[in-house]
Amino acid sequence: MHAPRATAPRSRRVVAGLAATAVVSAGLACMGTANAAEPDFPQTLAFTPVDVEASAGGVYATGYVGVDTNEDYVWDEVTGYVQAVGTGERISLGEGTQPSAMDVSSDGDYLVIIGTQKQQGEGDETYDAPVAWFVGTENMNVTGPSLVEGKNPYAVAFGSAGYYVAYTGWNGGAGVYSPGRDVALPEGVQPSHLATLPGAGGTDEVVVGATDFSDEGEALGTLRTISSDGTVGDRRILGPDDDLRGGIVSMDVDEVNRLTYAVSVRDMEDGPQEYGLNVIGPDTDEYVPLPDPVSGVSVSPDGETVFLSGGGSIGAYDADALDSYVGDSSPPYAYLGGDGIGQMDVAPTGRLYVTAEHEVSEDPEVSQVVSKVHAIEAPSAPTNLRAVASEATSSSLVARWTAATDTGGVPADNVHYRVTLQDNAGGQPVVKEVYDTEYQFDDLTEGHNYTLTVATTNGLFTSTPVEAGYTVAPSVAHPSAINIRGRVAVGSTLSLANTGSWAPGTALTYAWYADDRVVSTAPTLRLTKAHLGRSVFAMVRGTKEGLAPAVVYTDPTPSVALGTLAARVPTVTGKAKVGKVLTAKAAGWTAGTRLTYQWLANGKAIKGAKAARLKLKGAQAGKKITVKVTGTQAGYRTASKTSKATAKVKR
């Protein structure tokens, strides 16, 4: 079986499994007609895809529908299909067929699909024979299947001089075939991937990705090149070193810079598999470790972006800064909302086509998965960009815009905005990534002109930016700083002190904040129990006709502490004689304070004597009487005051 993989963005793609001998069919059998209308994506497929290929004229998928009655992982019934995605119905490739890979010709006029078809062997036995189909893309006419004799094809690549096929022979050996030429590969080499790089005079350099097996059975991922005269170059080993483990997962080429990108994997003795991206060229041999498993690689037509797929997401790596993603630095990525990425291919236009599985059953105990083809490209640009001064000060720019109407084929929660502010007087631009449709830049320079740009990005592609200009107007003359005066405790009144002065004629407004919530707009703030434990700061805004407003903030205070109750020493009136009544008088306490009393005889509490009045009894005779008044109030520390002692109580 062909393992799903990514393919290259141009007509010279990496395709596993094309049989050269299959492209000799005669006649075309009309099996369906394509519709030229532009389809909407994502498109749901009525079969399990094994490959997707894009050309300038359309996108095509091939796959199968299988029935495993006995659940023994062997298809009891299977039928292969091909489809022009979004522009035509699926077309059967015949009963008992199972395609494994597909490619589109350099001119986009035909597809070649390879796979297997069940054949009758001796007796009741059946076997899977390698076959190929030929499909005309204009009307989706299918010829085949044709039996492939003598070779087990693994990969094909189209180049300027035609097509090339990597294979292993039925009787051993391996090579790369093209019309009129068959180049043998060294012993022990299992080719799996092909690509071509353009040469002089319409010739090609063929890149072969393979797994080399030693006599001991150890595997090693490798690359080789075959020149236009059929010379096989020295192997380039994939991975961080010459450790003879692992193989090649996926491969693509950058024709612009003549580089090959290959994902390699090797089994580790003391941990999970190790994945890495290899960049190979005439003067390049770079290895970038990848933190997570990767199943496919594709390169943009301009060679500037490397797309890596793994799990349910696709990352967009800057080809000129691959080493910057090592460690905790992640590339921009898009998550398609499915359960796994299958195949991907970049069209010559730069549009990325991806297959992904999606769970559609609402019953968690019932698995119902459909496959969809997604088309990912640049989202639309934001609209209605405005650059205005904040309500507080012209030195703060508020950027607002209307959200993009087209996400470029990814879920909306993947879309965000790249906001850039450039001081036209020079300096580094300030770049921010935001998910809202508004952003504020602070501390701009008075009198300077700025250029604001906003672009939509969906993780993989970015829209053209929209632009707006902004000039910071002169603001009213104002203090360089303001400070808070007063004790930061409940019951205290805070005021403001300026460092410098406001311009004559400036109108001032105030705002006091407690933990970012406005609690007063007066020039002063009296602290209450509501402010206890909260930090306080203040803002003063000055406005004057013809000038931009200016805003000055204080530093935040420490948390507001408990207040101190005001109180006086209580007094005692009345005659100190048994049978007479003494009265406690408490004055000068902070308004709202709750008072309690405790009478004492010679400093010891008199049981039950907790009122403001005390009738003297014989037990108090000969003793001096005092009263202790205790005040409590929310937001304040409890306070107590004790009166002076009376004369000794007479009988």
- Average pLDDT confidence is 88
The main sheet orders its strands as 1-28-27-26
Apparent shape: elongated
Q: Supply the CATH architecture of the largest domain.
A: 7 Propeller
Cα Rg: 41 Å
Helix content: under 10%
CATH class of the largest domain: Mainly Beta
What is the CA-CA span between the terminal residues? 117 Å
What's the total helix number?
0
Low-confidence stretches: 1-36
The total number of structural domains is 4
Structural class: mainly beta
Tell me the strand percentage band.
over 45%
- According to CATH, the fold-level topology of the largest domain is Methylamine Dehydrogenase, Chain H
CATH homologous superfamily of the largest domain - what is it? Answer: YVTN repeat-like/Quinoprotein amine dehydrogenase
User: Sheet with the most strands?
Assistant: 4 strands, antiparallel
The number of distinct β-strands equals 51
